[in-house]
Amino acid sequence: MRGEFYVLRKLTRVLIFALLPALAPGASRAVDSEPAAVAACATEIASCGCTITKPGIYAVTEDLSASSGLTAGNGCIDVKAARVKLLLQGHLIQGAGTGVGLHLLPSATGAFVEGQGAEGDEPGTSALIEDWDTGIRWEASSGILDHLGSQSNASFGIELDNARGNDLSDYDASFNGIYGTFIFGSSANQIDAAKSGDNAIAGIYLGCSTGGPSGERCKGVKPSNSNFIYDVHAGVSKGSQVVSKFGIVIDTGNGGNLVTDDLSRGDTTDDLTDMNPGCGTNIWFANSFDTQSSTPPCIQ
Hints:
- By secondary structure, the chain is an all-beta fold.
- The protein has a domain at 155-300.
- It is built from one helix and 25 strands.
- The strands form three sheets. Strands 1, 3, 4, 6, 7, 9, 10, 12, 14, 16, 18, 20 and 23 form a 13-stranded parallel sheet that branches.
- The longest helix has 6 residues, at 13-18.
- The radius of gyration is 19 Å and the shape is globular.
């Protein structure tokens, strides 16, 4: 999956069954189409491998593991319906190094994902999604996510993929193999009150490269514009075993983003980076950092 961008196109059911009977889910980003047989999630979810196909309230009732089965898109839970309220209730969603822990498809408009522990659990406990390739892939619009961790995934903690108008807050995307938060072709989203540091390459990255800032415009990918990133810790924590190269990065061609009141220190290359000349139309204001990269200097 790492570094690939939608190699497979949407296939009709006729082609799947008539021409490609042996086709298995690939390692690239998930294909939008669903096979004929979809294991629909019950309102109480006790195992991986189901898809939410109807609006409503759904609750995870126990810790989940990839070993119990996966969806056709190689994930634990896929959300396909609009107006879904998904309560993770402080549970662990454990992967095996591949696939996606929680996948919100483009049709999952207006989703609400809450990770807070269930009533009666220890106060303040949050759900944890770990050991997948991507912890959360969010392709939907106008949704809300809060109170969960997406950590120790091979590539990304949270990936906003052509997503718009979402509010992600109070989450922890640490110790991931590439980025904590990957904003790919996604605009008008709000990232706040979160921890997205201690990741191998960067805490938060806006662009399309999986190797860090490229300094080049993305081809065939919409820019990530007008995102609001504030009150986020994106650097290196004291005593961390993972030292990021970058804290927050905006790559070339992404504009109108506001980055303010964020903390990023201790990164090996730069804490804050904007590859657009003079930051383009991005605004960086009232951030706390040690090093920055912008020409001419425009990060504050």
